[in-house]
């Protein structure tokens, strides 16, 4: 019996993906650097389906049907290269090497190019949904060649989450496209989590609503347009009481948010692409600031607050809900806009409707909203920005008064809402006829002769600031 697929790297993610594959009827060859993990998996879950136990990569390769599919699920970074280096000499042209870990898309591009020279397919696959998703159905974002997807796609689609009967898995695009889209997914996730945190802080510090009560509010919100996995689990977290102290769980947790790096990667990449993902960036920075324990301690002692004592607006809870919705929408708009920029840069044909659709199940940012986003990009006329899709233009217009009230109240009360406020600034930046950029262009021309355009003439110009301030055509400056 040959295996349909081999999995090497059987820590929690690899083991769960292998079990998911086996439960879906595929024969899975198992391998791990140290054989203990392989045996532990077989001892505990060997009855999940058909497994083939192997001890070496050679045995793993020998046990596979052709073209071989080898899924690597080891620690991201150097270990992936180490495993690839050991595997490649054992494979034949046409075989498919799959990296389903959290690799950086540039690494994936490099690996894909290197393996292509040996006539091997390398497929970087973004997998979202954590341990639970890997076992029961993740959202899957495969890159690599279309040819490799023809051989691999049916397996991945079978094990993915399903929404309305449709797999949350589709070919994303060549080389690193899958890992890129997964990275941006994580960036949106950061912003999505931060806006929920900001809503909590506003309701607590602004309106004095205790976590237990907020848990009910969040559960209620989860029945409407905000319905999502993150709102659902936030209701659970807020309702949880610490057994030791009897206090709300959120009051005994240290308020320093950790991060593993994919949000940071998103922002670095966005900066390189010139893509304004301000909400995502603010959410990464907010985590960084939360972790600056020493400075925060000094800040509490040294920095004035001077809050302005204002009454929170009537219907504040509903205002916060609407502001949360609008800010969340902006985060998705920014993330999807970044995908558009990346598609141009890397020559990927990213289908935003399919991407939004495969985020509807299995992954952390799964949300009702994604159905509407899918529809927006499935329309014949694709919006240049998600916010321009008629349904969302209307929705934001409806939320705008509440959004402005909430941000204004937060500023007056000294409650930091970096994503609520930066998202609003992004929105206003998009819609304003004139931006402060004209002043910046003037400054740049004065100190660096960087030139500027005029609203009333074609071409580029430079003012002779140090002379008689007359204007010349910029070609004259060179
Ligand atoms: P780990 O990231 O903890 O990696 C452990 C595995 O890597 C073990 O099987 C280990 O083998 C193997 N390994 C480490 N170094 C080497 C090496 N040099 N050569 C061969 N094998 C090596 O495992 P996880 O299951 O937590 O994660 C796997 C991947 O999935 C990572 O990229 C991670 O970022 C990603 N991930 C994704 C999540 C998601 O939601 N999509 C969630 C969690 C992780 P040994 O047992 O011999 O030490």
Automatic annotation (TrEMBL):
Pfam families: 6PGD, NAD_binding_2. Belongs to the 6-phosphogluconate dehydrogenase family. It comes from the Bacteria. Pathway: Carbohydrate degradation; pentose phosphate pathway; D-ribulose 5-phosphate from D-glucose 6-phosphate (oxidative stage): step 3/3. It comes from Arthrobacter gyeryongensis. Its EC number is 1.1.1.44. SUPFAM superfamilies: 6-phosphogluconate dehydrogenase C-terminal domain-like (SSF48179), NAD(P)-binding Rossmann-fold domains (SSF51735). Catalyzes the oxidative decarboxylation of 6-phosphogluconate to ribulose 5-phosphate and CO(2), with concomitant reduction of NADP to NADPH. The lineage of its organism: Bacteria, Bacillati, Actinomycetota, Actinomycetes, Micrococcales. Keywords: Gluconate utilization, NADP, Oxidoreductase, Pentose shunt. Residues 178-466 form the 6-phosphogluconate dehydrogenase C-terminal domain. Homodimer. It catalyses: 6-phospho-D-gluconate + NADP(+) = D-ribulose 5-phosphate + CO2 + NADPH. InterPro entries: 6-PGluconate_DH-like_C_sf, 6PGD_dom2, 6PGDH_C, 6PGDH_Gnd/GntZ, 6PGDH_NADP-bd, 6PGdom_BS, NAD(P)-bd_dom_sf, Pgluconate_DH. PROSITE patterns: 6PGD. It is an enzyme of class 1 (oxidoreductase). This is 6-phosphogluconate dehydrogenase, decarboxylating.
């Amino acid at each position: 019996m040959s295996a349909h697929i081999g999995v090497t790297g059987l820590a929690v993610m690899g083991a769960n993906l292998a079990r998911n594959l086996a439960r879906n009827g595929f024969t899975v060859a198992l391998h791990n650097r140290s054989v203990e993990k392989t045996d532990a998996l077989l001892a505990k879950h060997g009855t999940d389906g058909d497994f083939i136990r192997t001890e070496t990569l050679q045995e793993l390769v020998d046990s596979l049907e052709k073209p071989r599919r080898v899924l690597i699920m080891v620690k991201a970074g150097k270990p992936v290269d180490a495993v690839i280096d050991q595997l490649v000499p054992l494979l034949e042209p046409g075989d498919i090497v799959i990296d389903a870990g959290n690799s950086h898309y540039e690494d994936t591009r490099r690996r894909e190019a290197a393996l292509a020279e040996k006539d091997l397919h390398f497929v970087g696959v973004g997998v979202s949904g954590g341990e639970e998703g890997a076992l029961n159905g993740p959202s899957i974002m495969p890159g690599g060649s279309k040819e490799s997807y023809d051989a691999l796609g049916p397996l991945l689609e079978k094990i993915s989450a399903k929404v309305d009967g449709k797999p949350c898995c589709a070919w994303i695009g060549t080389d690193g496209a899958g890992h890129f889209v997964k990275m941006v997914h994580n960036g949106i996730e950061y912003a999505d989590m931060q806006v929920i945190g900001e809503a909590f802080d506003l309701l607590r510090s602004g309106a004095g609503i205790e976590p237990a009560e907020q848990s009910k509010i969040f559960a209620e919100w989860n029945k409407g347009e905000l319905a999502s996995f993150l709102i659902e689990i936030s209701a659970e977290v807020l309702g949880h009481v610490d057994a030791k102290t009897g206090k709300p769980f959120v009051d005994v947790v240290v308020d320093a948010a950790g991060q593993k790096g994919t949000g940071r990667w998103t922002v670095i990449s966005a900066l390189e692409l010139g893509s304004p993902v301000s909400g995502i960036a603010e959410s990464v920075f907010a985590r960084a600031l939360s972790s600056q324990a020493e400075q925060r301690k000094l800040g509490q002692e040294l920095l004035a607050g001077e809050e302005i004592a204002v009454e929170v607006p009537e219907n504040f809870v509903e205002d916060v809900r609407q502001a949360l919705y609008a800010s969340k929408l902006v985060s998705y708009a920014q993330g999807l806009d970044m995908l558009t920029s990346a598609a141009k840069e890397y020559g990927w044909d990213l289908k935003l409707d399919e991407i939004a659709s495969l985020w509807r199940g299995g992954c952390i940012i799964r949300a009702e909203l994604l159905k509407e986003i899918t529809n927006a990009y499935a329309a014949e006329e694709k919006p240049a920005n998600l916010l321009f899709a008629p349904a969302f233009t209307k929705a934001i217009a409806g939320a705008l008064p509440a959004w402005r009230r909430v941000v204004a109240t937060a500023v007056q009360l000294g409650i930091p809402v970096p994503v609520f406020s930066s998202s609003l600034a992004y929105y206003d930046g998009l819609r304003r006829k004139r931006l402060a950029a004209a002043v910046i262009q003037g400054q740049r021309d004065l100190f660096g002769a960087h030139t500027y355009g005029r609203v009333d003439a074609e071409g580029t110009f430079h003012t002779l600031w140090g002379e008689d301030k007359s204007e010349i055509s910029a070609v004259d400056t060179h």
